[in-house]
Automatic annotation (TrEMBL), chains A, B:
Molecular functions per Gene Ontology: acyl-CoA oxidase activity; FAD binding; fatty acid binding
Family membership noted in the UniProt record: Belongs to the acyl-CoA oxidase family.
Cellular component per GO, a single term: peroxisome
Catalytic reactions on record: a 2,3-saturated acyl-CoA + O2 = a (2E)-enoyl-CoA + H2O2
Domain (Acyl-CoA oxidase C-alpha1) ranges: 277-439
Organism: Blepharisma stoltei
Positions bound to FAD: 139, 178
Top-level lineage group: Eukaryota
Protein name per Swiss-Prot or TrEMBL: Acyl-coenzyme A oxidase
Localization in the cell: Peroxisome
Length: 649, 649
């Protein structure tokens, strides 16, 4: 059986699915025609393509490759006059894009948001032309999630009308800053503004740290690369310390606040704090909207591999071995993830739409959506990153030993995606913030909005018209979420009644249960978007195939809440039927699995995997690559073996 | 608060705990005095110690470091006249020990087991003196877990009385073989014995593959390193292909079977197959007995870090920040793992004792314990590796962003331990084998042995004398395991009644549920050993501290089976009390946490972590190491920046 024959088994046209997914969900900013065109053009520029050689490289070579990618992208961007979204789309190919991502995704947008008109007029052109290259320096060695605790100081000196940038403690070293380690000439530095002895808390300053020509660090600036990481080693995450380093008066970005030359503080826009807060939310929304890409890569590799790899004699034909995707446990591992991937895809648009609407209102001075949007995006940031990382590892393990080889492409997907659970708000902290928001809804009489369902009456789960009915599943998910949020709410009320204060309650008593409750709310929300997404598919064949994935999602996630379902009155017979639906849906997905994942059209060069090839020729490829691309195999004898091993061994 | 002050909080003496743990559980083969002596002596030999420099090295340097370790170990071993267990203990410091581990743990023991007396007399001395260095070559590109499916051929040529080693297909390449890639001069090759047209299945042949002086591969042998992996990159896992390569008649190991010069097959010991099968089991038992080490490393790092790291204002003292171990969620993450680690420690002795007894009997021709031992060891191999890997990652994440730095030591613990879920029997396959064995017990009237409890009457869970009572917890664990195994058994019987054959049932219908059931059996077994282990501790202060860990273990794992507990009649009030016990036990463990993990006495050099230091000076250390040990920071300007970035950017 070849992959080509497998492709014929699908009940629908994967091309039509691709045409539906891309403009509606995956990359709504671009037409599919333009995506195909960009893919084709990029595939002809070697620097914009992964190579298996990468896995044999040193960190220095990784960094250089990232520079080469960035330089080639800039050239391509200019010759093709790429839009912002087109550039972002191409940047998505490559996770280690230090200079460019730092510049275009963090440095310029943050500057544009927080500088006043005069500052923008003066400096934005230099930033766009890359005369100035920069980074956004907020996190410190001692302070990550707790932004208000940052220690770097910007002390105003009225006499010279300069700011003195200073790092007073070891923990005040800026740390983890992308693009800072080796590259940036300028940094947007978050520092406490101190003037006339008053501490006005964190503000942003544009600080030159390296000579723009030689790139040598300037005096008074201690800057460098923080060292190797679990992944993303082409990035130069950096550290930065100031030793009473003086910068001019206009270094402070002045859109929301400023200092008079005399050192008096003026708040220019009281809305500023909320807008900055929203920026953080937008970074998190980015994780929600972009994570499908690596998830689809891992599933493409592992589903193709599972259709080529055979193991153990087949009970139907003992002289042949059985394809591993024909074992129930392999289907369970992979299709559970395929179903989640589609869930993430259907949810990403409504979640980012919600945030966009929130942002639009905010710029008009209306913050009515901010709290809800923050909770919604937090919930999705937490669980999309969590389940994607978990899924990447499940895909990797489903490929057995070969999934442990770097050449499989699977380890680096995991290594590079892993930090999404930690950065832009650690998952635990965001989940707790979401929990506390959701609890507050319990006090509202009739809460509206995306979490309104949490304060509605409990349904009766004992009657199920049809075990595959999506409405029944939705009712179950919502009931579980209500039960769990209400339980935490009740415990909070009990603790308050006993005289405990909220901060203590949320540090010491309700964190574990509070976080657990948010997961149930997430599933209820995601399943709602899943149904909504499916309802919009007009192609019946496609709709039916994806509806089976929804069944896998619903039955898998609901099964985790068996105890809650019992408490909510679901009879055991219904629960048993639900488990049967799960196993049955795995089998029904089998003929469509390849088409469902290949509709994501991940190219071979971005996959960069010896075991995930479209032609299924994995073994030939593995042997060739290990033999001829592996630097330790050069020469017949490993250099050093005689010196370090042979004389003694 | 310093770590020194934290150490004073413990309710017991960690030194006494160390003295109890090491000889009784951790390293029962050596006295604690000898361990301390070996640790001290090794700490003075640079090659036997990790260094932070390692994280900056290339793969070539990793391999060389492994050689240096091996060479230094051999020298030390000779001068100190180390026993086998002493050598093993020291090898445990270093996970990437290609030549030595391959030689002493795989090559020599396999040869000694399968060669006849004559062969041993001739060759064992050369192997012990390392004149011959070898590897054990079984796994192929196309066949891992399915040993019977291997394809490499050893075709007997009666005319020359030679074997012709041949790799007939691309999938028959030997692959993953440790120590083969660059080092071994000889390989024990598992190949199908083919004589007079008969295929006798896999047998073992000792084959020279490289020149012992020059280490050049011999003609007809295609050998090399398979390339970079997720971890363990100091190891030279290799590939090997034969092209009608001739070896002498005595290459075949002859203890269990042999060929006459005429090419007729003679089975010499019908017990042979079972003994070889037991060897596989012993490798798995090794994973169970050794995994505590890396788990303890990760917990030492993350508990120390959590006692130094502060984040967010403390509700009791808003001018200070709160130590992260004083948040409930951090305690939950770490102490759940600390409790598991102690469980693994208490279980490892009874499990390996069981296997040792099985092996003793087997050599006497008595295979009565083999099936049970295989199931027991499989169960523990699967879940000890699973929970250890999961725990290593939970520890890493609990250190936030800094846990993503290689210098934290945490990523490499994960990377290097990860393959334990795949090698020596993939976890899914072993769990399925265990499930099928456990199901067979349901047919026995009165099964004895370690799983005898599975076929006893269901208990009444509605009456709980004391919510902290370990006997009650044990009854609950066993009841859950029974419920789940019996449910799978019933489904199997139903499917058989419907006319399905067992192979199909176990490929297509019962894999998911069968595997889930084994986890419940594992917890019941582990909890039994936990109680047993605690009961033997005579020091009451230590016993009390570890009993609280057992409460964490029991309440955490039982909570996962809430639905089963409801079905078994546990009232909701008891379940709620159990959850309270869990949270309360986390808080009660807090003052003892550091002592409970430091009792494992992991040395600073084996920890090799900037954030897990005994003196708590993490930030100073991070800055110094990133600044001065990081090769990309050498010189003020990164070489290549002008060439690859500057002209364009």
């Amino acid at each position: 059986m070849s992959l080509e024959e497998e492709r014929k088994k699908a009940s629908f046209s994967p091309t039509e699915l691709t045409q539906y997914l891309y403009p509606n969900y995956l990359v709504p900013q671009l037409t599919l025609e333009r995506i195909i065109e960009l893919n084709l053009k990029c595939s002809k520029i070697p620097e914009l393509n992964y190579s298996l050689q990468k896995f044999h490289d040193t960190r220095q070579q990784d960094i250089i490759r990232a520079y080469q990618f960035g330089t080639a992208l800039k050239k391509f961007s200019e010759s093709e006059k790429l839009t912002r979204w087109e550039r972002r789309f191409i940047m998505g190919f490559y996770p280690e894009l230090t200079a460019h991502v730092a510049q275009y995704e963090f440095f310029i947008p943050s500057f544009a948001l927080q500088a006043n008109e005069e500052q923008k007029k003066l400096l934005l052109p230099k930033m766009e032309s890359l005369e100035i290259t920069g980074c956004y320096a907020q996190t410190e060695l001692g302070h990550g999630s707790n932004v208000r605790g940052i220690e770097t100081q910007a002390i105003y000196d009225e006499n010279t009308q300069q700011f003195i940038m200073h790092s007073p403690t070891i923990t005040s070293y800026k740390w983890w800053i992308g693009g800072l380690g080796l590259t940036a000439t300028h940094a947007l530095v978050a520092a406490r503004l101190i003037a006339k002895g008053n501490d006005y808390g964190p503000h942003i300053f544009l600080v030159q740290i390296r000579d723009t020509k030689t790139r040598k660090p300037l005096d008074g600036v201690d800057v460098g690369d923080i060292g190797p990481k679990f992944g993303l080693n082409g990035n130069d995450n950096g550290f930065l310390k100031f030793d009473y380093y003086r910068v001019p008066f206009d270094a402070m970005l002045n859109r929301f606040a400023r200092l008079t030359p005399e050192g008096d503080y003026e708040l220019l826009d009281p809305n500023g704090i909320k807008i900055l807060y929203a920026t953080l939310v937008s970074l998190r929304a980015g994780i929600v909207t972009d994570s499908w890409y690596r998830y689809a890569c891992a599933l493409t590799i592992s589903i193709r591999y599972s259709l080529v790899r055979e193991q153990f004699p087949d009970h139907e034909n003992p002289n042949r071995e059985r394809m591993i995707l024909d074992y129930q446990i392999q289907r369970h591992k992979l299709f559970k993830n395929l179903a989640r991937l589609y869930g993430h895809v259907f949810a990403k648009k409504p979640v980012s739409d919600h945030y966009d609407e929130c942002e639009r209102r905010l710029f008009k001075g209306d913050d009515s959506l901010l709290a809800e949007s923050h909770a919604l995006v937090s919930l999705y940031k937490v669980y999309v990153s969590h389940f994607t990382v978990q899924g990447l590892e499940e895909c990797r393990r489903s490929c057995g030993g070969h999934g442990y080889m770097m050449l499989s492409g699977l380890p680096s997907l995991y290594m590079n995606h892993l930090p999404t659970v930690t950065y832009d708000g650690d998952n635990n902290i965001l989940a707790l913030q979401a929990a506390r928001y959701l609890i507050t809804l319990m006090k509202k009489q009739n809460p509206q909005g995306v979490f309104g369902f949490l304060n509605t009456p409990m349904p009766d789960l004992s009657v199920c018209p049809d075990i595959k009915d999506s409405t029944y599943h939705q009712i179950c998910f919502e009931a579980i979420a209500k039960l769990k949020i209400q339980s935490v709410f009740k415990k909070e009320q009990d603790l308050i009644a006993k005289g405990f204060k909220k901060p203590r309650i949320w540090n010491e008593f309700l964190q574990v249960e509070g976080i657990e409750a948010t997961e149930a709310v997430y599933h209820a929300s995601l399943h709602f978007y899943y149904i909504e997404g499916i309802s919009k598919i007009s192609n019946l064949l496609i709709r039916n195939a994806i509806e089976i994935l929804r069944l896998i999602y619903a039955s898998t996630e609901l099964a985790k809440y068996h105890a809650e379902l019992i408490r909510l009155g679901m009879p055991n017979s219904i629960f048993e039927q639900l488990k049967e639906v799960q196993l049955d849906s795995l089998d029904r997905t089998r003929p469509n699995a390849l088409a469902l994942i290949e509709a994501f059209e991940i190219s071979e060069t971005t996959l960069n995997s010896v075991i995930g090839r479209k032609d299924g020729k994995i073994y030939q490829n593995m042997v060739w690559t290990s033999k001829y691309m592996n630097p330790v195999n050069k020469g017949k004898v490993f250099p050093g073996i005689h010196r370090y091993l042979r004389p003694k061994l």
